[in-house]
Amino acid sequence: MKPADFDFVAKLVRERSGLVLTPDKAYLVESRLGPVARKEGIPSLDDLVSSLRLRTHSPLVDAVVDAMTTNETFFFRDKTPFELLENVIIPDLVAKKRGAPIKIWCAAASTGQEPYSIAMLVDSLGHKMGGCKVEILGTDISERCLEKAKAGIYTQFEVQRGLPVQYLMKHFKKEGENWKISDQVRSAVRYRSMNLLDDFRALGRFDVIFCRNVLIYFDAPTKKRILDRMATQVEPPGYLLMGAAETTLGITDVFKPVQNARGLYTVDPTKTGLTRAA
Amino acid sequence: MKSCLVVDDSRVIRKVARRILEDMDFQVNEAEDGQAALRKCQQEMPDAVLLDWNMPVMNGIDFLRELRSSPGGEAPVVVFCTTENDMSSIVEAMEAGANEYIMKPFDSEIVQSKFAEVGLI
Q: Which CATH architecture has domain A3-68?
């Protein structure tokens, strides 16, 4: 790919999604755009970029952005966030919400493994939920991922990555070579297409936001803008869960780390002006 | 160092499993069928068993039932690793006393995930 073409694609992807593509990612861009060109019947990457420059084919731009997103995910990924949800967050919220629903937002739901893991965990907690219902929203920029998430159908490989066999037995059934999640778990999660660069106030307010391993692809000013806007979307204490290698420190002070709980943050109402709704 | 007995009639599978488990710091022993595995367990009970289902002489499910009813046989963590990938087989294995279940083909990531799930790593 010519440097000028790479620069054009990198700028386009950044404008549309916030994802930062540095020149060392040129090989990645080429390897991911090749299948897009083939699928669209475009003979070469040069021609693909020419088509993008004309901007006459908006779905092509969407397909390029979609191809450049990283969708790595698996059930109960990293375990710790789910242990924190079970042992710290839910007990606190059950005590504070007094029967009102607990609202959870998975901000980069990808193909659905994270929100479904939360739904299965909540199902297993039984009386510990104190009668509280949980509403889970999964959003992602990738329509392709959301379609798979909504279908709830996973390969044998996918159901063996992080998913305990007891959950497989309880919540899945085999369909051909694949495994389909139960209607009960599937119906516990709503999905919606969402670009984190866009205004997400219409999503409403949440008690917990899972935003793991997504902000690493953004530059610092974009991370700050997203986190600051997320802080206004949470109901204090407003929990935020980030990836094990991520932090809000040095980026924004609207979220403060919870002691002895790596990756867990609560909103600082003094920085956002938020108070708990009556 | 924890020990794992790999029970599979395929020499290739045993070799692949050995490499994965040794990379996970396990001391690995091998058996080519359920009866040979029982003898090894009587000599020294392993911490874990990675167990195939379909084998000559004694299959995996019969081995597991024998193991669980023998003295000390409740201790090893048993992870099935088999081409049997239907729900009824999974249920049968878990009711017989398995702790986790891997459907072949497998790779190191799946073995690590399942061993972590049952507290072996």
A: Orthogonal Bundle (1.10)
Name the CATH superfamily housing domain B3-117. Answer: Response regulator (3.40.50.2300)
Q: Answer yes or no: do B101 and A161 touch at CB < 8 A.
A: no
Residue B52 φ then ψ, to 5°:
-75, 160
Checking if the pLDDT of A278 tops 50, the result is no
Q: Under an 8 A CB cutoff, do B113 and A169 touch?
A: no
Task: Measure CB to CB from residue A164 to each of B85, B109, B117 and give the nearest one.
Answer: B117
Q: What angle do CA A133, A135, A141 make, to 5 degrees?
A: 170
Mind telling me the catalytic residues of A?
32, 140
Dump pLDDT digits (tens) for B72-93. Answer: 999 999 999 999 999 999 999 9
Are B38 and B63 in contact by the 8 Å Cβ rule? The answer is: yes
Q: Cis omega before residue A23 (within 30°)?
A: no
Which residues 39-68 of B are in CB contact (within 8 Å) with A?
Answer: none
Domain boundaries, chain B: 3-117
In tens, the pLDDT along A122-170 reads: 999 999 999 999 999 999 999 999 999 999 999 999 999 999 999 999 9
Nearest to A160 among B86, B102, B116 (CB): B102
Contact B85 A173 (CB under 8 A): no
With CA atoms as reference, report the closest residue to A169 among B89, B117, B119.
B89
Is A161's CB within 8 Å of B110's CB? yes
Q: Does domain A80-272 have CATH number 3.40.50.150?
A: yes
